[in-house]
């Protein structure tokens, strides 16, 4: 793809906002995000260890476990790597993190046994988040599919499980294999379908609401036939816009 030099020059002068630290409190599920963010500073050779120590303090939440651990080391350049490695030892052990994310999947299983109606789109996003975290820890779908597949399948509500079984039964090609990749592909299709249905229904409901408002706002001014009705003055379902009962055609005093 060819880039216009003027466009490139304009982008080079664009002032981007500064990246703000998302502070780490000591929650194990936040370690990967924190580590991926902070490692740029940790590996930057242009920053001395004293400066890195100050960044490490700022990158932790005040009055949290993580901040307490960092501040337990005297803030000297020599102690920076000790503090960082101690944080990694406390919160970044891969085997512990794997257990955390597997338990998060189990938590989804338990939650869905208590909830009658499950938001499939939200559930799919949560499952994907746990699987991506596990994959970043080396727990690939291929290596741990036998463990992850029944967990993910158990997260699904009954009606989605029935649709999944039909999907597997009706598929004559490899897409009908009962494995984790096929299940996630099926869920992706279901979520996309659900989003399209919601979009269609919301559009219809909006049009229906607008139509009802138009009906409600229709003028109840009397028709010509009503003007000749001797009982017209006693009808309560018509509202005049003025109190003088002027003729609606010539705006003169109505002769009724």
From TrEMBL:
Q: Which Pfam families match?
A: DUF1759
Which superkingdom?
Eukaryota
Q: What stretch or stretches form a coiled coil here?
A: 110-137
InterPro entries assigned to the protein according to its UniProt record, in alphabetical order: DUF1759
Enumerate the UniProt keywords alphabetically: Coiled coil
Mind telling me which PANTHER family this protein's record contains?
Answer: PROTEIN CBG08539 (PTHR22954:SF3), RETROVIRAL PROTEASE-RELATED (PTHR22954)
Which named protein is this?
Answer: Integrase catalytic domain-containing protein
Q: What is the lineage of its organism?
A: Eukaryota, Metazoa, Ecdysozoa, Arthropoda, Chelicerata
């Amino acid at each position: 793809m060819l880039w216009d030099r003027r466009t490139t020059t304009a982008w080079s002068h664009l002032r981007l906002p500064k990246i703000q630290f998302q502070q780490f409190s000591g929650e194990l599920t936040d370690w990967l995000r924190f580590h991926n963010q902070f490692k740029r500073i940790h590996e930057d050779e242009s920053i001395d260890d004293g400066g890195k120590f100050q960044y490490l303090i700022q990158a932790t939440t005040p009055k949290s476990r993580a901040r307490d651990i960092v501040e337990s080391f005297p803030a000297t350049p020599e102690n920076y790597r000790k503090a960082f490695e101690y944080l990694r030892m406390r919160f970044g052990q891969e085997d512990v993190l794997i257990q955390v994310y597997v338990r998060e999947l189990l938590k989804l299983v338990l939650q869905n046994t208590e909830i009658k109606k499950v938001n499939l789109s939200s559930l799919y996003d949560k499952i994907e988040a746990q699987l991506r975290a596990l994959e970043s820890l080396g727990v690939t779908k291929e290596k741990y599919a036998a463990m992850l597949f029944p967990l993910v399948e158990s997260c699904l509500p009954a009606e989605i499980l029935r649709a999944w079984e039909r999907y597997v039964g009706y598929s004559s090609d490899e897409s009908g294999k009962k494995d984790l990749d096929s299940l996630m592909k099926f869920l992706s299709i279901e979520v996309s379908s659900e989003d399209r249905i919601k979009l269609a229904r919301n559009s219809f409901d909006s049009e229906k609401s607008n139509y009802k408002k138009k009906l409600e706002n229709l003028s109840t001014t009397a028709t010509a036939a009503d003007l000749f009705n001797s009982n017209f003055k006693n009808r309560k379902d018509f509202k005049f816009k003025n109190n003088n009962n002027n003729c609606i055609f010539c705006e003169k005093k109505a002769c009724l």
